[in-house]
Amino acid sequence: MIERTLCIIKPDAVAKNVSGNILAMIQNAGFKVLGMKMIRLTPAQAGAFYEVHKERPFYQDLINYMISGPIIPVALEKDNAVEDYRKLIGATNPQNADAGTVRKLYGESIEKNAVHGSDSGENGIIEIAFFFPKAELSANE
Ligand code: CMP
Fold first, then answer.
1. What backbone phi and psi angles, to 5 degrees, belong to 69?
2. Given 81, 86, 87, 123, which residue has the most CB atoms within 10 angstroms?
């Protein structure tokens, strides 16, 4: 089934200048890029994006980290996108991620873990809409 997932190249990976390497891994794995931009989130935007984690002890730290520098949201499409992308990036904690995954290669810690990925197709659509109005996505949308 064709699905969409939202990738965010997070501040640690942008600062390390490895965005191109990460995008190459994503594109070589067959994902189609529907939209991409480099932005800096406000605290309110970061808080809203991660609202599902509001009650978690790491919520405020996560917001502080996500606003610490520019990020690159990338809207992706592919057959079985959610599962395939999650395999490509590896476990949330880079220490537990398989060799060769994005987070193993580029993540620093469970918080500074290089990239975000949607956890379901439904959330992929919601999260892509958070960053991209329809008009900004590629034409065959
Ligand atoms: P992400 O996939 O973007 O979804 C939620 C983010 O919260 C996660 O990546 C990490 O950056 C962060 N996160 C998840 N669990 C923890 C944790 N135990 N401690 C600190 N940060 C976490």
1. -175, 175
2. 81
